[in-house]
Amino acid sequence: MTSITPAHLAQLNVATLRHPLDDPRIAPFVEMLDSVNGAADEAPGFVWRLVEEGAADATGLRPAGEDVIVNLTVWESQETLWDFTYRSGHLEVMRRRREWFERHAEAHLVLWWVPAGHRPTVEEALERLADLRAHGPSPRAFTFASSYTPAETLPEAAEHPRPVPPRA
Predict the structure, then answer these.
(1) Are strands 68-75 and 7-16 parallel, antiparallel or unpaired?
(2) What is the reported pTM?
(3) Between 20 and 30 A from 88 (CA), which of 19, 37, 79, 156?
(4) Angle at which helices 90-100 and 27-42 pack, to 10 degrees?
(5) Residues 93-105: pLDDT tens digits?
(6) What is the layout of strands, in order, in the sheet containing 68-75?
(7) How far is CA 112 from the centre of its chain?
(8) Cα(142)–Cα(112) distance, rounded to whole angstroms?
(9) Residues forming a β-bridge with 112
């Protein structure tokens, strides 16, 4: 009998600020942070989010660059993350994102399955994003449009070999 490790979905998105967080042009975004983060914390399927020590959110962390903010969360399923992102008050932030953030030329969101109870580090998350950018979607790093199931990714996803292209 095969045993499947219970899994949760980790999510990282990065956003390049158009202006510093203390700039009045970013104020509407900053004003929404507490309510959006509070809604996430209470959303069905929410497990965990990265928060800077001593702060209410992670906007002060800048592991991807001085003008880049990160959002790292864990959810019970892809469906619960999708519902929060696109079927809640968070959608207002999504609709207005171009006011506050630069358009990314490459992937800015990455998803991957983690064993239930695992809290991904920022380094792990940025490595998954780099993997997605370099190799495209795989069981190690994917998007909503190119998703994989936990059964396809755990535990072998941590060492997932890259497909070898056929010889010409």
Answers:
(1) antiparallel
(2) 0.86
(3) 19
(4) 150
(5) 888 889 999 998 9
(6) 46-49, 68-75, 7-16, 109-115
(7) 9
(8) 6
(9) 10
Sequence letter at residue 99: E
Structural tokens at position 63? 């592991």
What are the tokens at 33? 């942070």
Give pLDDT tens digits for 119-146.
999 999 999 999 999 999 999 999 999 9
Contact 68, 62 (CB under 8 A): yes
Token pair belonging to 51: 């928060």
Record the tokens describing residue 97, joined without a space.
């994102």
Structure tokens at 162: 């890259």
Q: Cα–Cα distance between 68 and 101 in angstroms, integer? A: 9
